Amino acid sequence: MQPYAIGVDLGGTNLRAAAIDPQGNVLGKLRGDTRLDEGRDRVIADIVTSIRTLRDQCGAQQLRGVGVAVAGFIDLDRGFVVGSSNLRAFDRFPLRDDISQKLGTPVILENDANAAALGEKWLGAGRDVNDLVLLTLGTGIGGGIISAGRVLHGAVGMAGEFGHMTVAPFGNPCGCGNTGCLEKHASATAIISMARLLQLGEDLTAEDVYKIALAGGPDAARAQHIFRIMGESLGIALANLVNIFNFPLYLLSGGVLAAWDLFAPTMLAEIQRRSFTYRNTKTRIEKATLGSEAGLYGAAYLPFLLEA
Ligand SMILES: [Zn+2]
To answer: What percent of the chain has pLDDT over 90?
Structure first.
């Protein structure tokens, strides 16, 4: 039997696990709910059970390790999850060592957005490059930086907080203490807030705003304006990233990518206008391809990276 690693994606809603070989073939996959309402021990027991199930299926001898992607900051030295709003019960709990002891297998923790960037590099839109940036556009904005094939962590693992880049000096206030953060102007939440401000409706989803923009009529013009603001904000952020990194590839992921045709022209024009590097190099700004599977695949890739 071939070597493989197990990736786990621990989200606030879903708990997923997959056994994947070094070539990226998925040997087995499990999916369940993250039963947070039944307590931390229940969730850990579910993680351990899912890893054991896959290990029994694929062979204990060939298992190279386990990677776990978690929504939250990771204290890499201690193997803690710190300050995750989705997983409060895990705050400062030694998750890595706890799972590792229960299984007798090495475990690596990684932030979910970093894992997603790694997944895209390994099996997704970034397969042909070693350096990329992934921006995840959801209720907030996060992402990851892959440099020379590895996650760039920074001093304590807080690199890649793209959502809190300033894109408007006097823009909307953000919970982080800043004003004009990217995620206050380009996330799904920001789209909904802007729609409310422009009196398009009170309880809209980002998808509703997208549909209004496509429908025509006076409301459509205001909804389209929201996506232009989103594109402009993303363009400013991406122009800065292109200037800083000179990477060949910048990926965007998340549900709001459905509105690509509405925000991308403004975004690309803004990058073109603001980045000398972009104008003079072959820099690609593209959609990520793995969707919500990216973090799971990236988690499974972590043990192989240790061997490399
Ligand atoms: Zn902020």
So the answer is: 88
